[in-house]
Design brief:
27% of the residues lie in helices and 31% in strands. By secondary structure, it is an alpha/beta fold. The chain has three domains: 10-95 and 187-206, 3-Layer(aba) Sandwich (D-Maltodextrin-Binding Protein, domain 2); 98-185, D-Maltodextrin-Binding Protein, domain 2, CATH 3.40.190; 224-290, 2-Layer Sandwich (Alpha-Beta Plaits). The strands form three sheets. Strands 2-3-1-4-11-5 form a six-stranded mixed sheet, sandwiched between helices. α3 (77-83) packs across α4. 36% of the residues are buried. The structure holds adenosine-5'-triphosphate, 1-O-pyrophosphono-5-O-phosphono-alpha-D-ribofuranose (PRP) and magnesium ion (MG). 1-O-pyrophosphono-5-O-phosphono-alpha-D-ribofuranose binds next to β9 and α6. The site of 1-O-pyrophosphono-5-O-phosphono-alpha-D-ribofuranose (PRP) has 12 residues, from β9 and α6.
Length: 296
C-alpha cells in the first residue's frame, strides 16, 4: 500500500556506517521499510511505502536535511547540534546513547574554567565552541577527524572533548573526564525546521507522519509487553489498578463466572514486579508476551 498518492517519495537519510548504522537499519526494518541488502548499496527505493533511503555518513545527514534535499534523517543529537544545521530533532530513538565530555590527564583540570588558554582537540568543534562561549572561556579548538584521545599523548592538545560511552577509550590513554557533561546524546529522528512531528500538516511531505508513527510504534513495541492473566471476579478492580494499560485493560468473562481474564500492556522494565504483585493479589496463569508491532 502506498502512503502518498501524489508527489515525490519521502527521502530519508540513514547512517551508512559507524555506531548508529546497524541499529538505525534494524529499527527501519522493524517499522516495515525495505532496507539495504549489502553495505555497498547507497540508495534503496521502497516503492511499497513510497520512500527513498539514502545511506550517508552520519555527520553529513543533518546537513542534507537542513538544506531540504532530504526530508528526514536518523543521526546523533551531538552531530545535529555540532553541524549548526537548521534541521530539528523530531523524536529520540532510544539507541546510540552517549555523553559528550571534556577529558584530560588526571588532575589537570576540574572544570571548564581550567581550559582557558589551552588547546582542546575535538571532532565536534561546533559543540565545543558553543560550550566554551557559554562558559565565557577562551581556548584554542583543534579540529581532528577521530581518535582524538591520542591528541594529548602526541602533544597536539592539553584537553579533549569527545563522545564517551563506556569510557574505555579514555582509560586506555590515561585520561579522565572533568566538568559537567556538555551534552547527553542518542540517535534521533530529524526533520526540516517547522516540521510538526506527528502530523502530515499542510505543506508537509506526505509520509513523514507515517514514518513518525511507525518509529513511535517500534519504540512502544520494544518498551512494552502484553500481560494476560486470570483473576477472581471480585479482585478485578484491584488487579486493574496494578495493570492499568494505556487506555484501559481488556476484561473478558471466563466460562467459570467467578473468574475473569484481564489483558493489558505493561512496561517491559518492572514486569516481574507486576507479575509478583498480581500473583500475591490472587491472579493466576499470568502470561507475558512480546509485542511485534503496534500503532498507539
Ligand atoms: N561508543 C560510541 N562511539 C562513537 N559514537 C557513538 C558511540 N555511541 C554512540 N555514538 C554516536 O554515534 C555518532 C557518531 O558516529 P560514528 O562515530 O560512527 O561516526 P563517525 O565518527 O563519523 O564515523 P567513524 O567513527 O566510523 O569514522 C554520534 O552521534 C555518537 O554520539
Ligand atoms: O567510551 P567508549 O565506549 O570507549 O566510546 C567512545 C569512543 O568511541 C568513539 O570512537 P569511534 O570508534 O567512533 O572512532 P573515532 O574516534 O575515529 O570516530 C568516540 O569518538 C570515542 O573515541
Ligand atoms: Mg566515531
Amino acid at each position: 500500500m502506498s502512503t502518498s498518492l501524489t508527489g515525490a517519495p519521502l527521502r530519508i537519510a540513514v547512517p551508512n556506517k559507524g555506531s548508529l548504522s546497524e541499529s538505525a537499519v534494524e529499527m527501519l526494518r522493524e517499522a516495515g521499510y525495505r532496507t539495504r541488502r549489502d553495505s555497498k548499496e547507497l540508495v534503496v527505493t521502497d516503492s511499497d511505502n513510497d520512500v527513498e533511503f539514502f545511506y550517508l555518513r552520519p555527520r553529513d545527514i543533518a546537513v542534507y536535511v537542513g538544506t531540504g534535499t532530504v526530508d528526514a534523517g536518523i543521526t546523533g543529537r551531538d552531530l545535529l547540534l555540532d553541524s549548526g544545521s537548521p534541521a530539528v530533532e523530531v523524536m529520540p530513538l532510544g539507541f546510540g546513547a552517549s555523553t559528550f565530555r571534556y577529558a584530560a590527564r588526571a588532575g589537570a583540570a576540574t572544570s571548564v574554567a581550567d581550559i582557558a588558554g589551552q588547546r582542546v582537540a575535538t571532532s565536534y568543534p561546533g559543540l565545543v565552541r558553543a560550550d566554551l562561549e557559554k562558559a565565557g572561556v577562551a581556548a584554542d579548538v583543534v579540529r581532528l577527524d577521530g581518535a582524538v584521545e591520542t591528541a594529548i599523548t602526541l602533544g597536539v592538545a592539553d584537553v579533549i572533548a569527545d563522545v564517551v560511552e563506556t569510557g574505555a577509550t579514555l582509560r586506555s590513554q590515561g585520561l579522565e573526564v572533568f566538568g559537567d557533561p556538555i551534552l547527553r546524546s542518542e540517535a534521533v529522528l530529524i526533520g526540516r525546521a517547522g516540521r510538526s512531528g506527528e502530523e502530515d500538516g499542510a505543506g508537509a511531505t506526505p509520509g513523514f507522519g507515517v514514518l513518525h508513527r511507525r518509529l513511535t510504534g517500534v519504540i512502544t513495541a520494544r518498551s512494552y509487553v502484553m500481560v494476560d492473566y486470570d483473576c477472581p471476579a471480585e479482585l478485578v478492580e484491584k488487579a486493574c489498578a496494578v495493570t492499568p494499560g494505556l487506555e484501559s485493560p481488556t476484561v473478558s468473562p471466563l466460562a467459570d463466572p467467578s473468574w475473569s481474564a484481564v489483558r493489558a500492556m505493561v512496561p517491559r522494565r518492572g514486569v516481574n514486579r507486576v507479575m509478583d504483585e498480581l500473583y500475591e493479589l490472587g491472579a493466576r496463569a499470568i502470561l507475558v508476551t512480546d509485542i511485534a508491532a503496534c500503532r498507539i
